[in-house]
Every structure is written in C-alpha cells, then in structure tokens.
Fold this sequence. Notes:
Elements: H1 2-22, E1 106-111, E2 129-134, E3 140-146, E4 154-155, H2 163-171, E5 174-176, H3 182-191, E6 197-198, E7 210-212, E8 223-225, H4 227-236, E9 259-260, E10 263-267, E11 274-280, E12 285-291, E13 302-304, E14 306-307, E15 312-313, E16 315-316, E17 318-323, E18 326-335, E19 338-345, E20 349-357, E21 360-368, E22 377-379, E23 393-398, E24 404-407, E25 410-414
Parallel strand pairs: 1-5, 2-23, 5-6, 10-25, 17-23
Antiparallel strand pairs: 1-3, 2-3, 4-8, 7-8, 9-21, 10-11, 11-12, 12-13, 12-16, 14-15, 17-20, 18-19, 20-21, 21-22, 24-25
Amino acid sequence: MRQAYRATVIKVFLTALLLGACGPAPAASPTSAPETTAAPTATTAPPSSTPVPASATPPEPTATPASATDTATVAPPPTETATPAAINPLTGLAVGDPAVLERRPLAIKVAHFPRHVRAAQVGLSLADNVWEHYAEGGTVRFTAIFLSQAPERIGNVRSARLIDIHLGYAYGAMVVASGSSSGTLARFREAGLYDRLIAEATGYKGCPILCREEAAAVTTDKLFTNAPALWALTTQLGLNTPQDLSGWAFDPAAPAGGTAASTVHIDFQLNNTLTEWRYDAASGRYARWIDTPETAAGAENLAPHVDTLTGEALTAANVVVIYAPYIPSNIWEEEGGTRHYSYDVVLTGSGPARLFRDGQMYALTWERAETTSGLPRLLDANGRPVALKPGNTWFEALDPDSPTTFADGRFQARSKVPDASALPTATP
C-alpha cells in the first residue's frame, strides 16, 4: 500500500510539472509600488494657459467588457491615466503646479492717484483679481489679489483702507500695505485681522518684504514688495494655509441674455481719475485705458494703462461693477498733507452688479451673507450663478447712488459717495 501511495504522489507531481510548463510565464515583480492616481474631478486637463470651466465634471467611467478570449490570468494592457486639472478658483484657469493653490492669497494695496504714481505701478497684470475703489479726498486705490502667480516686484504699495478688512475676510488673505491711520489699524485689531496685516506700521520693514527705495519723507512712490518673500513670511508665521475660495462659476462660452457692450467708462473724480475698458474682439478681452496729465476737464484724452513690470497694457477677461454702500467713517486719512474722513465700502449683504465679458453686459445681483468669510456670489435674476470668462477679473466698486447710463453699447458711471465732512468727531 505504501508503494502504491508513493506511485500516486509521483504521478501527481509529474502531471503538475507538465501543466506548469505549458502555462504563461509569471510577470516580473515590480521594484516599487505604482503611483496612485486620484479619480479625476474635471475633464482632462489642457495646457495651463487654456481656460477650462471650474465646474466641469467628467462623464461617469464605464467598464470595458471583456472579450471572449480574455481569461482571469491575463491582465489588460496598461493605459495612460489622465491627471485631473488643478483649477484656480479665482480665474477658472488650469495651473501648472497644483501646490500654488495651497497657499493663502495676498491682498496688496497699490496706489493709483495722483497720476505720477502710475509710473511706479508694478505687477498688476499678474494679479488674479483687482479691486478698484474710491478712498477719500479724490484718491483711488487698488487691492490686487495674488494666488496663482508670484511676481518678485509689486507696487507701489500704499496704506490700507477699511474695504481691505472685507477683502481680507472674503479671500482669507494676508493684507499687505505700507500701514494706515491709527483708526484703520484699530479696526483691523477689532476684526481679528491684525496678525495678517503685513505693513511697515506693524513692524515689517526692509527687503525683501517691504523695500522702500527712497525715504517716505522724500516720496511715497517707492515702496515695493515681493510675493515669494511674502509667502515665505506667511509660512514662518504659521498662516500659509489654503482658503475656501469657492463660489464663482467659469465657462469659456458666454451666457445667453447679454447686451452688446463695447465700453465701460467710470469717472471716479471729475475727469481726474478716469477708468475706461474697451472691448477688443480679436483677443476677447477688455483693454484698460486711463486719464493722462493732458486730460482736460470734459475731454477724454486717455492712454493705455501699462504695467511697468511687463511693459504691456493691462487687460481683463471680466469687468464686474459692484454697487456697494460707501459709509463715511470717523477716521481721518491724510493725502498730500490734507486730512479727509475715510469710507467703509460695505461688501456684505447684496446689491446690483454688472458683468462685462465677451463684449456683452449682464445685469446681476451680488450677494455676500457672511461677514468673516466668503467671496461675493454673482447671481442672475433666478438666483443662479452667472459664469465668468476664465481669466482675470477687475472689480469696480461704486456706491449705489452713483449716476449710471447705458446707450449704444457704452456703459458710463460717475462715482458719487456720501458727504463725509459733517461728521462730528475724528475719534475712531
């Protein structure tokens, strides 16, 4: 019996060897684990310069049926896995390095009046968003928002205003300025944003954070900053974290229901601070024009607004006019040796807005319910988000009482704000 058992074992063993010799060769063991690719959340990414809708979602993948010759032991041929696009929520454009979207936005204050400061304006063409607003005493300033790009020279940096508290909250941004009045600084403290205010007044002096190339006693036009250095400082402070910037929709195709609009003209100060956006059908963008020293009262001798960093004229994929209340404060701001009460541009609640894209104007409502967070939503008459064109956006903030006309494709508004001179006290 033992011999019979042994013979049976030998027979089974020989049979297994023969079967193994006829089967497929085993695959080589990998030397390292394959890279894991997350399931895409958007359509296949185009090159970083190509706009894609931020809200695009791919079709549900479908399984490929196995052919009649497939077996469980034969793996399908390898296929290339598409990497999902990393979309900048402020522009709707794909970015080459997804890591740039993990940093905190920068809100940098830039001067625009008087006219001679414009020769020192640097880096505005690389901002994702820019907010233009009336300050006080005929002064107009910008707050430029940087996330996807990091120019090493931005300026001319000037002092913050109360609107920057709203924008600091909306973007979750670091606010970068030369300083501000004691009253505005006190408001930053009350708002809990003082630790995110990078300014000479808060102790940040010297290159590369804030580089004053000429003493402030000589000129206020020579203060510049550096975006990589600002983000390095933000990391050092433990504040460089990604923010929730959701809320805007983007689509390369213009929405239905627009009205042809080739020009957006805004007069901030009686022909002395003019902004005009002219639509260029070839590029599909609005080019920015501004007044010059030769602009006479009542005349419109305008010139392209040039970024001295690139030497190129400023353009925008979108121009959004937002009507928000200008509330006179009891805070003194000084410009050119003259003191004026400043304004708080209240970017909470809701109000009318106009979107200009692709040569079309759209009547919207802006809405921002949360005081301490959240971008303003841009909604149509049915409360649905209206898509911006992928690219940069300039916001023009006007008081609701500002006179506005629209005829023959030309939108025209004159900034009008409440009289702040009757305030009883200058104490914040």
